[in-house]
Amino acid sequence: MIIGDYLRQQRLALKLSRKEFSKNVIDSSHLAHIENNRNEIRAVTFIELLNENNISIFDFLENFGSFHAQSHALQIKASEAFFNKDVAALEELIKTNPYPHSVSVQVIKFMINKLNGQMDAFPRKSRAIIKKYLLAIEDWDENCLWILANSVELYDMEEIERIVDWLMHSERDFGEYTDYHVKLLAQIVINYLKQALRKDCDHGQIAQAYQYLEELPNRSIIFYEKLEALYMKAAQKGRWDQMFAISQYLDLF
Questions:
Q1: Domain coverage including residue 49
Q2: pLDDT confidence of 24, banded at 50, 70, 90?
C-alpha cells in the first residue's frame, strides 16, 4: 500500500512519533497498522492527516506516480532475479529498498525462502501481512496480481481456490491488458495448478484453470507458462513422450 509508505516517510522526515503525527485524527496504533500496510485508510482521513501536519496534498499527488513506478520497477527486478534463482540479487533489493516494511518487500523475502527451500520458516508475521493485504482487496491492479503470483503457497487451498476462481471469472478483458498484466495472470494460474495437482484438488477447478490458460492470448511473454501447462497436463495423463519433448523446450529458458 503506497499510502502507508508515504505517511511513514513524511512522519520520519518531520521527526514525529506516531502519537504526535496522528494527533486527534486517528489512534496511533491504527496509524502503525496503516504504515505497515496492514490496514487501509479512508481518503478523508488521509487528507485530514496531511492537513494537520502541514503536508501539501499536491506534493503527494505529484509524487504518487513515481511511487508506483518505483514499486513496478522493484517487482520486475525481483521477478527476474527469482526466475534466475539469484538469491543475492533479491537480498540486495531488500537491502536498498527505502520501505522495508512494505508488502512487496515481504513478498521478496518469501521468494528468497522459496529458492532456499525454506517456505515453512517464513515468519508468521510477514505471512499475515501479505495474506491480510490481499484478502481485503476489491479492485485488483498489477501490484496486487504480482503479490499474489509470488505468494500463492501462503494460502490454504480453500482460500486460493476462491481467489483464483474469482480472478478467472472477472479478469477476462484480455484485449485490454498489457503484456505484463497477462503474464501475471498466467503465473497466478500456473502456481495455483502446481499446488492443486500436488494435493489432488477438485478436478473441475483444475480443468477450468487449464481452460483459462488456453484462453489467454498467445503472446510471446507467456510462452513459458503455456508450455508449463502442457507439461503438467501430459504428466497428469502419464504421457511421458510428450513430457520429454516439452521439457526440452522448457530447459531453454
A1: 2-55
A2: confident
Domain count of the fold of the chain: 2
Cell 503474464, residue located: 183
Whole-model pTM: value is 0.72
- Torsion sign across C-alpha atoms 211, 212, 218, 222: negative
Residue carrying C-alpha cell 520501505 = 99
Is residue 166 included in any domain, yes or no? yes
Instruction: For 188-206, give one letter per residue: b (16+ CB within 10 A) or e.
Output: bbbbbbebbeeeebeeebb
- Residue 17 DSSP symbol: -
Tell me the C-alpha to C-alpha distance, in Å, between residue 12 and each of 9, 16, 17, 53, 67. 5, 6, 8, 12, 17
In angstroms, rounded to a whole number, what is the distance separating the alpha carbons of residues 162 and 123? 24
